[in-house]
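User: Hey, quick favor. My workstation is busy. Could you predict this chain's structure for me?
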Amino acid sequence: MSLHEIYQKLVQNIGDTTWPEWVSTVTQVVSVWYARKNHVLVYPTGIIGVLLAAYVYFFMVHPPLYADACLNIYYFLMSMYGWYNWVQKKDATQYTYPISWCNKKELLIGFGFFAFFWAVIYWVLIGMTDSNTPVLDSLVSSTAITAMWWMAKRKIENWLAWIVSNIVAIPLNFYKGLMLFTLMYVLFLLMAWWGYVEWKKRWRSTTTTLQNNKTLP
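Assistant: No problem, here it is.
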């Protein structure tokens, strides 16, 4: 497919984009923006987007992207969990879950989630559905499952997992003709890298402040 054909397909599909896709895209972009800023509004805005995305993947794509649809239901549940975590505080100035790196246990759990869900989702897709993209669909889902769990605990590694998930989601959505979602994942990829850089800066700043406070008489 030439660049001109890709452009024509892009314009045509965007013109055919339904309102659930538009609203889902806008709210999810806003959600990722809030995530980058470490703001709790990442969750209420994200909830709107993922529920609409689940509807699109289940009922508006043929054959349906089952794993991605179920993934967005998981996003909803983890958003409720993450929302609760993010507002918890140890005291008036310190959050229970500040921005931090994963320890060894959290890394192992994350990679365990990834391996387990990739295998299970792939097996379900090839054995119980008419999915024609089981490898990519299961890979997007398993990396995103890991990313969402780390994000609920404000772990910096969540951005790295999102980067991998978005890289795979771009060609998957393009192949399915979901051009607006394709553009959304391109934007998500850029914002995930931006979020990773910004969260590292915030972590360094917080760590330096805490160390300085400890040295004060």
